[in-house]
Amino acid sequence: MKIPFLSFTEVNQHVKAAMLQSFEDFFDSGWYVLGERVKKFEQEYADYNQVNHCVGISNGLDALHIALLSLGIGAGDEVIVPSNTYIATVLAISFVGARPVFVEPVKATFNIDPQKIAGAITDKTRAIMPVHLYGQCCEMETIMSLAAKHNLFVIEDNAQSQGASYKGKLAGSWGDINGTSFYPGKNLGALGDAGAITTNTEALARKAAVLRNYGSEKKYYNEVIGHNMRLDECQAAFLSVKLPHLAGWTEKRREIGAWYTAALKDCPQLTLPEIADGATHVYHQYVIRTPQRDALQAHLQQQGVGTLIHYPIPPHLQQAYAYLGFKKGDFPIAEEMAETCLSMPLWPGMTQEQVQYVADTIKSFYRS
Ligand SMILES: *Cc1c(COP(=O)(O)O)cnc(C)c1O
Question: Which of 76, 134, 146, 346 is most exposed, with minimal Cβ within 10 Å?
Fold first, then answer.
């Protein structure tokens, strides 16, 4: 059996005709930047995410960047971020001239440890950026009350967890202003780069909308020094076609996640992902951990199973962040995760038989 890490076949098949029609409508409209398709998708995504406002942005990294700019965070400020996040969260902080301050995750959930945040707060801290990693919503209640107590902003990085929730409230609806990504491999994926900001605060939505469009609301009148970071009209049209399917695709991801857990729970060499009390998971990734990660990955590859490592080097050890002066051992939990984590194949349409084949192949590795 050959099982790719990711396959769009099933998802694409369900939307192909509607996508082609939406492209033709877009093509014929003769309006290609910031038109009615972006506006329509912004309303639809705000409704889906149960927030007052959505602002379409060029990609997830730019969405986080604009979110930080909208809050006025910049040089001299510190922003708290998990030590095991994808580099984009940290880059956004760098782009505004602020300093990332890393806080270790909880091993079982991979998400930032709310108990460790208070210890990282200084008089320069302006914001906390929780990342709902791999599809599980962070323990947002504790994070929000810490932020309120210390007068900090919260910016959720919701690139991986559209539809996940904590105590019934959706990821991307807790923070002051939040970013998400519609990169093709994300749970809701465009056919290229795309992203969005979600917020309940009208003034922040307006700031973000101005900043993404040359700092201008009225054409050729520039209020602030802005960017060109707009969601593409064509991608917005595609996303409107796909959004109604997201809930169904999420159900499939959850089913596949449950299959993996059932098929692997009797494998003592593995640490399986856990879900925190009150949190839900949308399985952007199903990430297992094992000290023999590299050999297991090679074995799976030989047997036709594609896997990936999210992520092999934590941000504090990346060459790009050498200037922060960290060394190996400074964030041992993030480092251990980078050395032991392995993401299983998972996409809507994957069958129980395929999951069983992956599980059996893992077990054959430990028997040999
Ligand atoms: C994908 C991702 C981003 C960046 O999104 P892009 O659209 O690729 O720029 C940011 N944060 C996390 C956690 C991501 O997974």
Answer: 76
